[in-house]
Amino acid sequence: MREHRTPGRPRGFDIEATLDVIKALFWERGFEAVSLADIAAATGLRKGSLYAAYGDKQAMYLKALARYEAGEVAATIAALQGPGEPRARLQAFLDGPIRAAYDAGDGRGCFLCNAAADRALVDPDAAAIVRAGFERMEQAVAAVAAELDPALSPETAAAVAAACVTAYAGLRVLARAEMARASLEAARDRVLAALPG
What's the pLDDT tens digit per position in 12-62? Predict the structure, then answer.
């Protein structure tokens, strides 16, 4: 993604594709471990161009986190709302962290979970993005819980959703820490066994 230099014309590069590169850095390493030099090296852009396009390092991080929240969370919600039995969709949701870490070899975890531990306590804007993403997931899971048992009150469905999303986040964090797969699967199974319907 090198800058295209044309005399007399502004430098041009793909804003969204470059933000994906920045997102990948922060997602894998966290805020503190990524320097502007790292971002410049990964994107092939000069610091001035990065500042002009995205703002300072904190602004880049927030844009990257928001892009994850918009894209990855949307994909998770689409899967929850997709075809198949509701219990199977919830199992796939809870299987996701385990499969990602142990089958796909993806040790990055969930960017929202990472941000909750990495930046949310010191950056209210990051905390707001984290909350928005998890709230969206909870709403989607609550809808699936209501499919499992239409007699559930909205409050009970919301409580089931909170438990599932909390388990999902815990599985993401512990999988990233390379906890034993069997332990994570046992925890997943306990949550699934407690589902209504």
Answer: 689 999 999 999 999 999 999 999 999 999 999 999 999 999 999 999 999
Q: Report pLDDT digits (tens) over 101-136.
A: 999 999 999 999 999 999 999 999 999 999 999 999
Q: What is the 3-state secondary structure (H, E, C) of the chain?
A: CCCECCCCCCCECCHHHHHHHHHHHHHHHCCCCCCHHHHHHHHCCCHHHHHHHHCCHHHHHHHHHHHHHHHHHHHHHHHHCCCCCHHHHHHHHHHHHHHHHHCCCCCCCCHHHHHHHHCCCCCHHHHHHHHHHHHHHHHHHHHHHHHHCCCCCHHHHHHHHHHHHHHHHHHHHHHHCCCCHHHHHHHHHHHHHCCCC
For residue 12, report the phi and psi dihedrals to the nearest 5 degrees: -120, 140
Kindly tell me if the per-residue pLDDT of 181 is higher than 50: yes
Query: Has residue 2 got a pLDDT over 50?
Result: no
User: Which one, of 145, 89, 146, 115, lies nearest residue 34 by Cα?
Assistant: 115
Distance CA 139, CA 141 (A): 6
